[in-house]
Amino acid sequence: MKAVLAFSGGLDTSVAIRILQEKYDCDVITVTVDVGQPKASIKEAEIKAKKLGVIKHYTIDAKAEFTREFLFPAIKANATYEGYPLGTALARPLIAVKTIEVAGKENAEAIAHGCTGKGNDQFRFEFTIRTKAPGLKIIAPIRDLNLTRKEEIEYAKEKGIPIQVDLNKPFSVDENLWSRSIEGGILEDPAIRPKETIYEWTISAEKAPDKPKIIEIKFERGVPVSLDGKKMAPVELIQVLRALAGKHGIGRIDIIENRIIGLKAREVYEAPAALTLITAHKQLESLVLTKDELKFKEVVDSTWSELTYKGLWFDPFKEDLDAYINKTQERVTGETTIKLFKGALLSLARSSPFALYAPEVVSFDVKSFDQREVAGMLKFHGFQAQLFESKRKKLKSKP
Ligand code: ARG
């Protein structure tokens, strides 16, 4: 049987290749989807795949598509789940789609992934595969064999599977354009404070420059188009912003996260560009959307984020939510000024041709708006409460 494996080159998927070959009797084709992970790890995946005897290996550059079709919608939705900007959750549906495409091209019968049975990624991969390619068989070798990380390392050693187990950094890391997640090892104890060395994208607030950096981000219809007056392609803008904000200590997140199956997990993330862009975007929305739109959008945004976290990217409900979000974004055009300073993000200024801000009315210095007209409105402000209070008094005074 021919099986196409979504292959990162990490421990789980490397072990999965060998299990697929030996236990499932598969010819394995590997697919590494480039969503902005380090170039070296993509190269390494290619080399490993060959070494492990796959019949074909694909590397697919999906950075531009990932940004346009996944990260930009996430900015429009101010997407976070329990404080996490969803980097991994956003990448999984795209990786699954690219793997399905290869399966079609190669006439494969099965798709395989290296997810364990404890995490969220199995839900994201399998929902996408079942929805987009219901005829394909799904194989999850690591989950099927109920393997622990330790058993995987032993298996890799026994089978001569090349793995880098850095004893100082025994973590499970997932990295793409939007975020870097660090799990496992000593981090599994939520009472332990992580060492500085786990971080690669961000500097500590203490070591960040003493001089703040002030940046201006321009948005058009809800998506960023330029940084400090310089027009940038989507991928470049995120990469530049990631380095800039990371240098100022922005984007560290250390949380207890509620996973899909209900497990609480300690998760550490770095997401400098994501947090900066969401802060800037929210600032602009607050200027152009009405109070009711904003209030309702908070509910839509958090529902959208939860759906994405759960891997239900291709659920029609998400299309419905996108319709509302996209309608509101027609006016989210303008500029925001943000200060990056020792781990803090501060909004300094915002402007838009669609601003609902009315200086001619709100200013203390303007007389054209007659304050006296508001007095009539006050009589009925909380009118039912006024009625209730007088009724209560009456009832109390009765014998
Ligand atoms: N907790 C995050 C999520 O569910 C990060 C998962 C990282 N995945 C991984 N295979 N290392 O999206």
Secondary structure topology:
Blueprint (H helix, E strand, L loop, with lengths): L1 E5 L4 H12 L4 E8 L4 H13 L4 E6 L1 H14 L10 H19 L4 E3 L8 H12 L4 E3 L1 H4 L4 H11 L12 E4 L4 E4 L29 E8 L2 E5 L2 E2 L2 H14 L4 E7 L5 E7 L1 H17 L2 H19 L6 H14 L4 E8 L2 E8 L7 H4 L11 H6 L3 H15 L2
Parallel strand pairs: 1-2, 1-4, 2-3, 4-5
Antiparallel strand pairs: 6-7, 7-12, 8-9, 8-13, 9-10, 11-12, 13-14
The chain binds arginine.
Descriptive overview:
This protein has 399 residues and is of the alpha/beta class. It has three domains: 170 residues, 3-Layer(aba) Sandwich (Rossmann fold), CATH 3.40.50; 172 residues, Argininosuccinate synthetase, chain A, domain 2 (Alpha-Beta Complex), CATH 3.90.1260; 37 residues, no CATH class. 44% of the residues lie in helices and 20% in strands. The chain has 14 helices and 14 strands. A hairpin with a 2-residue loop joins β9 and β10. α3 crosses α4, α4 runs parallel beside α5 and α10 packs antiparallel against α11. Bound molecules: arginine. Arginine binds next to α4, β6 and β7.
Please describe the structure with a list of short key phrases separated by commas or semicolons.
399 residues, alpha/beta, Rossmann fold, Argininosuccinate synthetase, chain A, domain 2, 3 domains, five-stranded parallel sheet, five-stranded antiparallel sheet, 14 strands, elongated, binds arginine
